Amino acid sequence: MSLDQIVIDTLVVGAGQAGIAMSEHLTQQGVPHIVLERDRIAERWRSGRWDSLVANGPAWHDRFPNLEFNGLDPNTFACKDRVADYFEDYAKTFEAPIHVGVEVLSVERNQGKPGFAVQTSNGLVQAERVVVATGAFQRPVVPPIVPQDARVTQIHSADYRNPQQLPPGGVLVIGAGSSGVQIADELQRAGRQVHLSVGPHERPPRSYRDRDFCWWLGVLGEWDKAAPPLGREHVTIAVSGAHGGETIDFRRLAHQGIVLVGLTKSFDNGRVHFHKDLATNVERGDDSYLALLDAADAYVARTGVDLPEEPSAREMLPDPECIVRPILSLDLAESGISTIIWATGYATDYGWLHVDTFDDKGKPQHQRGVSSEPGIYFLGLPWLSRRGSSFIWGVWHDAKYIADHIATQRKYLAYRKTVQGQ
Ligand SMILES: Cc1cc2nc3c(=O)[nH]c(=O)nc-3n(C[C@H](O)[C@H](O)[C@H](O)COP(=O)(O)OP(=O)(O)OC[C@H]3O[C@@H](n4cnc5c(N)ncnc54)[C@H](O)[C@@H]3O)c2cc1C
């Protein structure tokens, strides 16, 4: 269907979880809107992740408030296709006005009249407001360390699907956030020799005293923190729902056969060099783990809530050889490494958004998603309003705030029109 010459109050770009949450709240506020999605609903969950991925949070937590996962034990972890199905079903519950297969090519502020001209692959749309719900995980980031002509296959975790996809041989996984550790674990279990480059990270216990860490972060107010602690802004979090949900424990991974190395530093003559920070990074990860146990114990003591003690959670495995005597460089060919997987995260991509709301580093300027450019909104970004903002449950609450803001703006404009009309 051509969208040419459509005039709409609010146009939402992207129909992932952020766009769907936005559409639900705009519907409730009676704001006329459309959602444009270049692929399919929840495409990232459908095709943008590896085959065995399951949600990092249990099904009771990683969902929107108004719908449970049909037929799934709430304490289990939904596989990625179930998550995609969930969002498709969710969009149907309120007949979200989503147009799939339509890419937004550019957004320009109109001159001399309100709103924005939105050029799409299906025609030119006029919109009073634009909500950018394209998320934080748009463009895979690979640091320029190993040249493309080095004799090793290099892929980003966004392009990893399964062990069979890789050429025979060992694998160096760079990055030990949730993606890197899960991929390294899967490859090692599939019989590959795996090295894992571990930088600074946090690793909460999967569960403690009979409660999942998602529950603990909730009752301890951690999901609602407004900003990351100073100096920890770029620290990744290592969690997993794989195998029924296990705590990420780097010593266990090493005892299982994965060789840990420090942060990847440089490359020359076929050798990758690593920082001497492995032990420190693992210790700091332990600190974050133990801090959560301490906070949970203090919560139990304070509130008297009846949860079983779990002293074994504080027992640590002995340091493996790779931590005691760290490897500081590896000759890829000699080590039999045929593939490097960069699990080094994502960046945003706003090449199509031609409005004046970015700082000199290209970061959107906004307050809780309301941008410095009137009429432009951002949703789904990490720490948009709080720690939970880029996750499934958090984005729903941020969308509500933005919909309220839009509804209030519409009321102001309606008031002005009434006065002029008299
Ligand atoms: C590996 C991985 C695992 C994750 N696991 C979890 C988890 O278990 N639990 C959790 O809560 N969070 C998880 N997240 C974080 C987050 O929930 C997901 O990344 C989620 O997909 C983000 O949703 P979103 O709607 O913000 O963005 P996306 O899902 O990326 O959706 C944005 C949509 O916008 C579309 N789009 C982009 N540009 C345009 C354009 N110009 N025109 C039209 N459409 C466009 C894209 O096609 C896409 O469908 C995970 C993230 C990653 C990377």
UniProtKB/TrEMBL annotation:
It comes from the Bacteria. It holds the Pfam family Pyr_redox_3. GO terms for molecular function: flavin adenine dinucleotide binding; monooxygenase activity. The keyword S-adenosyl-L-methionine does not apply. Keywords: Oxidoreductase. PANTHER family: FLAVIN-BINDING MONOOXYGENASE-LIKE PROTEIN (AFU_ORTHOLOGUE AFUA_4G09220) (PTHR43539), FLAVIN-CONTAINING MONOOXYGENASE (PTHR43539:SF78). This is Putative flavoprotein involved in K+ transport. It comes from Paracandidimonas soli.
